[in-house]
Amino acid sequence: MKKAILIILFLSLNFCFSQITIEHHELSDCAIELTNQKVTYDPSYFSIDYPNGDVPSDKGVCTDVVIRTYRKIGIDLQKEVHEDMKLNFSSYPRIWGLKTTDKNIDHRRVPNLMTYFKRKGAAKPISNKANDYLPGDIVCWNLGGAITHIGIVVNKKSQDGKRNLIVHNIGGGQVLADCLFDYKIIGHYRYEK
Fold this sequence. Notes:
A hairpin with a 2-residue loop joins strand 3 and strand 4. Helix 1 packs across helix 2. The protein has four helices and seven strands, in the order H-E-E-H-H-H-E-E-E-E-E. Helices cover 34% and strands 19% of the residues. By secondary structure, it is α+β, with helices and mostly antiparallel strands. Residues 4-21 have low confidence and may be disordered.
């Protein structure tokens, strides 16, 4: 009887881990798919629908890569961040001087996404080892001063085979790049809803 229970437990754990792997590879594939869409970097404020609102499909910034990728697997970060901010506004950065939430822009700000992911238990250790950054992981960087950036680790390797590539938008549209260690990493997340 004990042996049967152990076998069932083992199989259940294997199934759970394989489901997580599939989801993160799906996230990676969705991010790569975004690189086929021509997007001009545009940090303008847009009034958008709620929930499932998006800026015009030919415009976007780095956060829009993450938002659009998660939306492809059925997770609306606009709604998730907005609802969490409404309930926990004081836990979020006060960088922009807001006195209340703004469903048009809050989810499009890197520090807010970092706070949300951390609050949801998605924070992973930051390291200088490429193998620690897996497909589907989210990485945030400080580009200098107060300029932050975000991208998604995907299941494609650098030319030397040592690092997974990143899908991000740093000004040239939604692109695939070998840039994991090009900037100071300030956040590493594996978000699963």
